[in-house]
Design a protein that fits this description.
The chain has six helices and six strands, in the order E-E-H-H-E-H-E-H-E-H-H-E. By secondary structure, the chain is α/β, with parallel strands linked by helices.
């Protein structure tokens, strides 16, 4: 199996101003489809079925930080049935306060993405990396630097930006990142325990 498309999102932030609201942890997730015959449309259909059961509008955006617990439970129950796997990296920034990253949060984000994409199992094949527009506004240059400096074009070929509200796979990546973030930041693994059965690797940095 090779990965030709993956979706990326994060929870937490790359800042080091802990007294001004910066999170202790930064979590970045990449998500990929394991059964091409079902594909994006099949996954979209399943998520839309959740919305119908919960009487949510089809335009509803699943976002972990804003999602009611009832919706989260329904979401993760369905997630287990989808042909998806994810990789994740968790950065404990308080352990890096005296590192060069503390004065350059963009560099930290760049390094975390590099480490996550460097794990090449299953291998990337000129993959399209899909990111949220909101992330792109902050880190797009850093993504390009990662691709040009550290990764072969045979691995990741293109970056695509979409609004998370219109892309269900970005929303799924957000929900997974949120469940991991809650485990580390709040010591609550109630949702992570469900999601981790689809986990390929979790890197602690």
């Amino acid at each position: 199996m090779t990965i030709e498309k993956l979706w990326l999102d994060e929870s937490g932030d790359a800042g080091f101003k802990f007294n001004s609201g910066s999170s202790q942890f930064l979590v970045i997730v990449t998500l990929y489809i394991t059964n091409a015959t079902i594909g994006e449309n099949g996954i979209l259909t399943k998520i839309n079925e959740i919305k119908s059961r919960l009487r949510l509008p089809q335009t509803y955006e699943f976002k972990f930080s804003r999602c009611r617990d009832k919706f989260k439970k329904e979401f993760f129950t369905t997630f287990l049935t989808l042909p998806l796997q994810y990789k994740a990296i968790v950065v404990d920034k308080k352990k890096l306060k005296i590192s060069p990253f503390s004065s350059n949060p963009h560099q930290l984000y760049c390094e975390a993405v590099r480490r996550l994409l460097y794990d090449n199992n299953p291998p990337l094949k000129k993959a399209i990396l899909v990111i949220d527009e909101a992330t792109a506004k902050i880190h797009y240059k850093e993504f390009n630097m990662v691709l040009k400096k550290y990764l072969s074009k045979k691995a990741v070929g293109k970056i695509r930006q979409y609004r998370s509200q219109s892309n269900i796979l970005i929303q799924i990546a957000d929900m997974i990142a949120g469940s991991i973030y809650r485990k580390f930041e709040r010591k609550d693994d109630s949702y992570y325990k469900i999601a981790r059965s689809k986990e390929k690797i979790l890197i602690e940095f």
